Amino acid sequence: MQLDNKTPVSKMRLDNENGTSQELLSDTHYKNLNLKNQLHRPYLTVETNEGTRVVSNRQIDFQHVVNFRDIGGIRTLDGKTVKWGKVFRSDNLSKLKTSEFARFSDLKIGTVYDLRTKNEIRGKEDHLPKSTRYLHTPTVKDNGDLLTQLRKKVVNGDISEEESIRLTVKLYQDNVSENLPAVKSLLHQILFSETPVLYHCSAGKDRTGIVTALILSILNVDRQIILDEYLLSNFYRRDKVEKMLGKAKLAKIIKPHLNLKVIENFMSVDTLYIMATFDFIDQKYGGMDEFITNELQIDAKTHKMLIGKFTYQHI
User: What would the pLDDT profile of 61-90 be if each residue is shown by its tens digit?
Assistant: First the structure.
């Protein structure tokens, strides 16, 4: 957790998921507060001359689950902040260890939404505590084992760099066009949930990134900030991507047509993809506000209620 060391802190309180709290520091400046070996996820309530804000860790560490993060703590255009501990995103949870169930349950996630197709899930089923509700909510059509076919084309060098970008852009835009009914249903389930939720696809970057971008748009977050949050997937997945690219380089010895740039395009997120989605919404639906009202069917009264539910005003 980082705090700007130029900001005078008048009071700081440590709160935990289990409901306990402790006064920590006062009347000084702090840059880093190192909290180790916490049994429960920590939240810091910080009082400064600029007001009161809550700080927590965005990334939630699990041994074999990457890109698991909270979308809280993000400022909105009207000066509010997205609440922590309400909405989480990640890659698939097939490798969540039983020994990590307590840490997972500590987040109080009531429902996990799985955006993958049945073919993607096969052999990589989510491993969750029994108390967690699991819902299969695919946001793309299950056209057979399309991913396996795509991988074969990549290995054989049948897909160019330009084609990999075109296919990815189409995947994004399909989520707000031909697959919109599924995405709309998912967003309503997430936003109207009475408990914290988590949603994920296979890598937690594309379909999950689109859903996150739409949620943050509904909460009136600036597009540049949405873009910054989206690009965090490259940061949190960097080790996994580097390892997989390393394997691809070795495979290229026996598969000389393998295009490493194509693999990197499919494994990473890029500004181009999410901006193409925003541009599509602007051109086809007349802008994000119109999209929210007319396509997602969230009227002004409901929209205001959702902003109140998921954000807080600095005191």
Answer: 999 999 999 999 999 999 999 999 999 999
| Other Cβ atoms closer than 10 A to 152 | 10
Cα separations in angstroms, 146 against 47, 122, 143, 189: 52, 13, 6, 27
> How far apart are alpha carbons 137 and 112 in whole angstroms?
10
- How would you classify the pairing of strands 69-70 and 87-90? antiparallel
9 membership: H or E segment, kind and range: strand 8-16
Q: Are residues 8 and 118 in the same domain?
A: no
Residues 8 and 66 in one domain: no
Rounded to whole angstroms, the Cα distance separating 175 from 139 reads: 7
Cut 0.70: pTM above it:
yes
Query: Do 45 and 99 share a domain, yes or no?
Result: no
| Parent domain of 18 | 1-57
Q: Are 202 and 120 in contact (CB under 8 A)?
A: yes
Distance of CA 203 to the CA centre of its chain: 10
CA distance 233 to 69: 10
